Batch of 3 targets.
Target 1
Amino acid sequence: QVQLVESGGGLVQPGGSLRLSCVASGSIFSPNVMGWYRQAPGKQRELVAEITNIGDTNYEGSVKGRFTISRDNAKSTVYLQMNSLKPEDTAAYYCNFRAPITHRPTYWGQGTQVTVAP
């Protein structure tokens, strides 16, 4: 019902920056929470950052101070500005859209690969 398309991934050197974008379309509802998750090979998918429709944010501990999540409701887009990237940040990054309550459907994008290496 909600479609999400990510872009902006790629190969970057340690210490570099990338900006991910996710455009939502379809039956967009509000209130909502949009976020970014990541999954590396052999690891569970983990929350990187979330932002509500009114701007409240939540970050995973290791990215605090380096990553910034933001959104533009007029463009139905959420962004993830990633600075001071580390090899440990290498993963497939997925956009997420959900209601701000539990036990409700959650929507996922196709993912965009971020690789941090020399």
Note: The longest strand covers residues 18-26.
Target 2
Amino acid sequence: QVHLVESGGGLVQAGGSLRLSCAASGRTFSNSMTMGWFRQPPGKEREFVSAINWDGGITYYADSVKGRFTISRDGAKKMVYLQMNNLKAEDTAVYYCAVDRSVSYTSATMSTEGEYDYWGQGTQVTVSS
């Protein structure tokens, strides 16, 4: 079992920045995982944001956040981060981190919600105008 805890959400003005963190732990944690960020805006379905291979530098971003968000990970600390810059009102959502126990190298699998095995409880990000 892999446990995930998100933090760093909050209220920010449009154009501002936030950095989300996700702490991973568990007996089955390994370096061959894929970790991703998803979000669910109010009244909408959950959508893909970004993903990264835990043991490599392959990243993938949704078009809506490309150029504004940056995903990264710290293997030693078992943490994954989402740096969010130039935030917009449409970025308002509950943000979730997730783990795919197997490593992925294609955008299709990295962005598919059903590929992920474990999910955090989410952290709220609210962007005001």
Note: The two ends are 40 Å apart (CA to CA).
Target 3
Amino acid sequence: QVQLVESGGGSVQAGGSLRLSCAASGATYTRNCMGWFRQAPGKEREGVAVINTLGRTEYAGSMKGRFTISQDNAKNTLYLQMNNLKPEDTAMYYCASDLRGGDFCGLSRKYDMLYWGQGTQVTVSS
């Protein structure tokens, strides 16, 4: 059974930082691709950042330089460090994983990832 549990969301002022965590359980091969996705009310889900087993990362343009995705394999945990947060970053943030890695792993998989967490809310005030 695969379970992804996010934590670390909250409310911050613009310019602040948050660190999201995603604790993963289940077989290691189910996490060949891991990523963070977000969805704001009334908006389409969008990819934030993904990472594969080789450590290759991809970031959405507006997050480059502000967000960092990382993983601690020993702890089975995925992280998203978010700095210089902006009001437009307000959304529900979801952790996702998939057993398909390699070229599959990318931000375009926002609807294709097999496993999803329940989400953690991030609210940024101006």
Note: The mean pLDDT is 95.
